[in-house]
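Incident log, entry 3
Record: Cyclopropane-fatty-acyl-phospholipid synthase (257 residues)
Problem: checksum mismatch between cached and fresh output.
Input:
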Amino acid sequence: MNRVDHIAGHTFHGRKGAIRNAFRYSVDYILLDPESQPNTPTLFSLNRANVTNWRDSDHGGEPRQGRGAAWLRDQFNKMGVTQPDRITLLTQPRVLGHVFNPVSFWFCFDVDDQLYAVVAEVTNTYGTRHSYLCHTPNFAPIQTSDRIVADKLMHVSPFQKIEGSYTFRFDYRQDRVGVWIDYGREGGGLIATLTGRRAPLTDRTILWSLLRRPFGARRAFFLIVWQALKLWVKKARFRPFRTAPVPDHPVSRIREP
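Fresh output:
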């Protein structure tokens, strides 16, 4: 992959349980090989300032202290997982120096270019990060129909408990990408999706995105705050972050069938 792709996508969140809330927003993501030196448009850079950019330090490890793909490979070594032949990262870029990614996805491919693992890198608004290694039994190629389950271990939304599980589904193609997450717990949960078509990132798409969705991920952060206010008005229970344990390991495995 010798280019950076632009994903002009949509995200949907629908709350389950007694207090319902749902929203659908348009979003701008990028898909890139973090270990290559892809061709980039003038308004986008890797590891240096620009109108939009991407930095290794924003991923892999603690926020703003990450090591990018090198971190992921270290984690695979520690867990005894076969190293990927190729990695792509689905994430929001920095826009005017700012970034906030509630979740990014590392897609890992084997020597036959089959998708065999996905690392979901979750970051909450309190600056805590935890990742979930998603794979099928025996790391067989991941199909669109596969449902991969992982126990929830980190405090994300202050309106949800730290219990239950995530069910992931992935659809990775040459022309589009899709992720579906069904968070289930007793009496509630959440359904979240991210879908969009792939196209080369160009200066034109960057400028058009800035016109339609100014401030990039900063916009996403304020939309999260807006939805939180709506839940507060609806009298959803607020759970302070200080009561939540933090996982003592950066990556957790799926729940084995």
